Amino acid sequence: MKTEDVKKIAMIGAGDMGHGIAACCLIGGYTVVLRDIEQKFVDRGMAGIKASFDKFKAKGKMTPEAYDSALARLIPMVDIQEAVKDADFIIEAVPENLKLKKSVFADLDKYAPKRAILASNTSNMSITEIAAATGRPEKVIGYHFFNPAVLMKLVEVIKGAGSSDKSIQIAYDIAKKINKVPVIVKKDSPGFIYNRVNIPNGAFLSKILEAGHPTPEEFDAAMKPFMPMAPFELLDYVGLDIGLHSMEYMMQVLSLEYKPSAPLSALVKAGTLGKKTGRGIYDWSQGRPVIDLSKATKEFDLNHMIALQVNEATKLLEEGVADDPKEIDLAMANGGGSPFGPFALAQSIGYCSP
């Protein structure tokens, strides 16, 4: 199969990530089957796609003709066998549970055409292990989009131990066609590129909570002038539970240094998860929190976070996860709000030479 042979994409999982990815594929001209385990989840995903397209059309970013065409190519589905029976490319975006993902991939392997590439949107889990649930590891890849998928540019295209170069290239080409910025992750490694480079900063924030000083607002006030969303604010936005689970996973597969602090664990246990629950580190009940820049701490500055990123990014080069600092910078700049990656930032402040 060649890239141009891919006409129909099946999206397995209609949640926020699933329907966002589906929307991207529709805009790229593909026919998309949106599948979930219950009709109510499918309906919610369909509504999410329409809401995104409504905004695009209202802002003039989508013509009425493109709007109608995209929705006409969207097919809702609950039956997984029917959803994938003639799909060329399948993207899984179910909850981050390895047992669940392997079960889904076993079904995909059973029901999907032998030509089909099976892609997982996992943000952390081993593509090699997921592929082991199938009889086609050469056609199993990682395909990590970022939230919100309709807006964020980065797609990490992850090569598992058995993934073929052809499967990786087709996935890379599709990402380009749907107007994303793909970066190939050449070795299946925890956190891939973006999350791996950022996880030390997550541990850093967790330790600041544990120390009790500076306060999250004081820390964020020092960082806010350099980024659209400050670190603790972003942690709240993504979800404290997501941050906690990522750290727990990294603690298991990388280092005990990533053990979450007691205050972070307590917030999650209490159900105060951030924006999605209305309260986390900040109060989101009235919308995005206002950070008072006059409270900026002098205890830490941006260089501390840059140094943590550079250290971890250097490890990725040493391990062969990526082989070019520019690729890591490309991933980091397009996965978040910063216009520059860690190596470019480090060079600008004299940490490393060109």
What report would you give on this structure?
This protein folds into 2 domains: 3-185, 3-Layer(aba) Sandwich (Rossmann fold), CATH 3.40.50; 193-354, N-(1-d-carboxylethyl)-l-norvaline Dehydrogenase, domain 2. The protein is 48% helix and 11% strand. The chain is built from 15 helices and 8 strands. It has an 8-stranded mixed sheet with strand order 3-2-1-4-5-6-7-8, with helices on both faces. Helix 5 (98-111) links the parallel strand 4 (89-92) and strand 5 (117-120). It is globular.
The class by helix and strand makeup works out as alpha/beta
Poorly predicted runs of 5 or more residues: none
Can you count the helices? Answer: 15
User: How is the biggest beta sheet arranged?
Assistant: 8 strands, mixed
Global geometry = globular
| Estimated helix fraction | 40-55%
Strand-residue proportion = 5-15%
The largest sheet has its strands arranged as 3-2-1-4-5-6-7-8
CATH topology value of the largest domain: Rossmann fold
Q: Give the H and E element order.
A: EHEHHEHEHEHEEHEHHHHHHHH
Q: How many separate domains?
A: 2
Specify the CATH architecture of the largest domain: 3-Layer(aba) Sandwich
C-alpha-based Rg, rounded: 20 Å
Q: For the record, what CATH class of the largest domain applies? A: Alpha Beta
| CATH H-level superfamily of the largest domain | NAD(P)-binding Rossmann-like Domain
Average predicted confidence as pLDDT: 94
How far the N terminus sits from the C terminus, by CA atoms, comes to 40 Å
